[in-house]
Write a structure and sequence with these properties.
Blueprint (H helix, E strand, L loop, with lengths): L3 E6 L4 H12 L4 E8 L7 E4 L2 E7 L10 E4 L3 H13 L3 E4 L28 E3 L3 H17 L1 E10 L6 H15 L31 H14 L5 E8 L6 E9 L5 H9 L4 E3 L11 H4 L5 E8 L6 E8 L3 H15 L1
Parallel strand pairs: 1-2, 1-5, 2-4, 5-6, 6-7, 8-9, 11-12
Antiparallel strand pairs: 3-4, 8-10, 10-13, 12-13
Helix pairs in contact: 1-8, 3-5, 3-8
Length: 332
């Protein structure tokens, strides 16, 4: 693979720093690496392969010579600066929600729909973190038995709300244990020793935007326009790795044994499922790991052709940086 000139936009953020680690660990072929962030971060340095690389200010003229641009700086900045990157000749892999549902822009999970990558016109969208791990689990089962309906409840780590949210969770936990007053900034309520059944803004149908992302994005990625999906997204006091309890109804019956066999062969999946030994996936398994972990596989006793599974993946890796880098690898 020929080395490329790569830019990381939002380099100092939680996902941006993960981009650098993933690029280094996977030995992505880089000729020149440009780190871009807001003006207040310009001048800082970040380590990459033993070198200190300066952070430059993100401007419309910053993409000269860049061939692949990995964006994770929020939807508004992606909408503003991604077209400039494309105009300069770069292919943009965008981690925000800016372009996900735009017609003509591929929404890609490499284990699920890699064929869509070649359809890009300069921009490829990285799906929502919760959607990514869900479709990695769903697609092998869909290919075997055709999924008709999905009901999912998420248990989403604070990493999904950024580094400041992670810091707040740690600080609140320490203050709570010390008997101090808790400071609330990133969430509507305290997150320490609490669950918040609310992620993103509420819509007219009383679902949240995060929940509707899972509906619309899953349909687009799996190419099933009328797939029935219902989601409840919950923020939990876990630093990294989202968990999901997923109930699936299929046209063709799958037994637990069949489902385990299918998932055990699926790309990017690690099965951990042995009730007799209390073996099941947890956030501590997936934190810092590249795989989507699946367990608690069982046949639904309440309906025909139903399955229940539990899915865990690192939100900052497979849910963000890793998925984007995997897309970039496919581009090569």
């Amino acid at each position: 693979m020929s080395a490329k000139n790569v830019a990381v936009v939002g380099a100092t953020g939680a996902v941006g720093t993960e981009f650098l680690e993933v690029l280094e660990k996977r030995n992505f072929p880089i000729k020149n690496l440009k780190l871009l962030a807001s003006a207040r971060s310009a001048g800082k340095t970040l380590n990459f392969k033993g070198e200190k690389i300066p952070v430059e200010e993100l401007t419309h003229d910053a993409f000269k010579g860049v061939e692949i641009a990995l964006f994770s700086a929020g939807a508004s900045r992606s909408k503003e600066f991604a077209p400039s990157a494309v105009k300069a000749g770069a292919i943009v892999v965008d981690n925000s929600s800016a372009f996900r549902m735009d017609e003509g822009i591929p929404l890609v999970v490499p284990e699920v729909n890699p064929h869509r990558i070649r359809e890009h016109k300069g921009i490829i969208a990285n799906p929502n973190c919760s959607t990514i791990q869900m479709v990695v689990a769903l697609m092998p089962l869909h290919r075997a038995a055709t999924i008709k309906r999905v009901v999912v409840s998420t248990y989403q780590a604070v990493s999904g709300a950024g580094q400041a949210a992670m810091d707040e969770c740690v600080a609140q936990t320490a203050d709570y244990l010390a008997g101090k007053e808790l400071k609330i900034a990133k969430f509507p309520y305290r997150i320490a020793f609490n669950l918040i059944p609310h992620i993103d803004v509420f819509q007219e149908n009383n679902y949240t935007k995060e929940e509707m992302k899972m509906v619309y994005e899953t349909r687009k990625i799996m190419e099933i326009a009328d797939l029935k999906v219902s989601a409840t997204c919950v923020r939990v006091p876990v630093l990294r790795a989202h968990s999901e309890s997923i109930n699936i109804q299929t046209e063709k019956k799958l037994t637990r044994a069949q489902a385990l066999e299918i998932l055990g062969k699926a790309e990017g999946v690690k099965v951990k499922d042995d009730p007799s030994q209390l073996q099941y996936p947890m956030p501590i398994d997936a934190s810092g790991d590249y795989f989507t972990w699946i367990g608690r596989v069982r046949e639904d006793i309440s309906q025909e052709n139903g399955l229940d599974i539990f899915v865990v993946a690192d939100q900052l890796l497979k849910g963000a940086a890793l998925n984007a880098v995997q897309i970039a690898e496919r581009l090569l």
